Amino acid sequence: MTLTVFGDSTSGNCLKVKWVLDRLEVDYRWTEIDVRSGLTRRPEFLAVNPSGQVPAVVFGDGRTLSQSNAIMTFYGEGTPLVPEDRYERARMFEWLFWEQYSHEPYIAVRRYQLGYLKKSPDELDPKLFERGSAALARMEQGLDGRDWLAGGALSLADIALVAYTRMAGDGGFDLGLYPRVCAWVERVERALGLDASTRCLVPA
Amino acid sequence: MTLTVFGDSTSGNCLKVKWVLDRLEVDYRWTEIDVRSGLTRRPEFLAVNPSGQVPAVVFGDGRTLSQSNAIMTFYGEGTPLVPEDRYERARMFEWLFWEQYSHEPYIAVRRYQLGYLKKSPDELDPKLFERGSAALARMEQGLDGRDWLAGGALSLADIALVAYTRMAGDGGFDLGLYPRVCAWVERVERALGLDASTRCLVPA
Question: How close A88 gets to chain B, by Cα (Å)?
Fold first, then answer.
């Protein structure tokens, strides 16, 4: 039995797991589950993840795991995606926890409310834009003098953060204001073999 | 030079770092910083953590680290506080990420708004109570048939989750509705040598 991944292909949280599995050449079966369909609240899915969130995985032996960054860590441990140096590994985790607390709840949520719930910008909580902008500014600073967020190469931190950062334009954020973030998005996309997101046009 | 921890003693995020350091007998100097004083927005502190959040630590060599769960992971790695088994370690991380995304933003925030900002329950976003209650219910289920959240002993997951769960009463949550959570709070408090929180009275 192989690994099953339950994910929504429009969700950055789900895509980051996919990118890690693809990069590490882990064999898996992707089961598409639209978060807006209500399926994540059905008993069949709650048996996989009682929190009702995607992504969630079921291993071949039936055991389950959820939380995108925990799944990435499970597969990333011992690979070049997790820095060997203890301090740099801790910095990677700093970014991973920061992403879930200070980035995703603003940048991903604003994108979702605009693009999927079709709200107008006036209807949105202004905090989403303020804190999302602060998150992008924090990344701009964190990338000062470095190509990758933690360690000297692509790590789980870059993969986790790029997921919604590259879609920030859909949330009404102007990535052009953050040139280091822009260049880093392109760098991570190249490393992952993703199509370049057109949101990010850095002047030459 | 020893480790310096910048923390607010009323913050569960800061206390969890303290508990881990104490348990592992790490030598440190605690610098109290009241999050309501505005000090975390001053340049001196932003040089330590550009995100302006406590806890944050400065190592003897001047390097810095923030995010409570990342600091705990840095010190916990290779100790009995992190399960040796790969899957159980992943479950520990699942709880750590879940804590920052689905527990702290509701239970800690409701406690803060009631206890520190002195808001009345009527002024609060109803989502705080709904999602905080859902988080406690999720823990109640996660503790079914087990004494600890991940692995067979106290781990970083228990320490991270107990921090604000034991204070949930201050946020208007009735822990008596979650008997397994109650018994677990007492278990973790005993393991950490903390005073028993009086919020949690489990019928014999």
Answer: 10
Distance between CA B112 and CA B116 in Å, rounded? 5
Cβ–Cβ < 8 Å for A106, A132: yes
Chain B residues within an 8 Å CB radius of A180: none
Are B101 and A101 a contacting pair at CB < 8 A?
Answer: yes
What does the DSSP 8-state code read for residue A150?
S
CATH 1.20.1050.10 domain locations along chain B: 86-192
Give the residue from A80, A83, A78 showing the smallest Cα distance to A150.
Answer: A83
| Global model pTM greater than 0.90 | yes
Q: Please answer yes or no on whether B93 and A100 come within 8 Å at the CB atom.
A: no
| CB–CB contact B90 A73 (8 Å) | yes
For residue A75, what is the nearest residue in chain B, using CA coordinates? Answer: B90
Distance between CA atoms of A171 and A132, rounded to whole angstroms? 9
Q: Which CATH number fits domain B3-76: 3.40.50.11690, 3.40.30.10, 2.30.30.40, 3.90.25.10?
A: 3.40.30.10
Q: Which of B53, B70, B91 is opposite residue A65, by nearest beta carbon?
A: B91
Asked if A63 lies within 8 A of B87 by C-beta distance, the reply is yes
CA-based nearest residue in chain A for residue B50? A138
- From first to last of its 204 residues, chain B has per-residue pLDDT tens of 699 999 999 999 999 999 999 999 999 999 999 999 999 999 999 999 999 999 999 999 999 999 999 999 999 999 999 999 999 999 999 999 999 999 999 999 999 999 999 999 999 999 999 999 999 999 999 999 999 999 999 999 999 999 999 999 999 999 999 999 999 999 999 999 999 886 555 554
Q: Which helix (H) or strand (E) holds B137?
A: helix B126-142
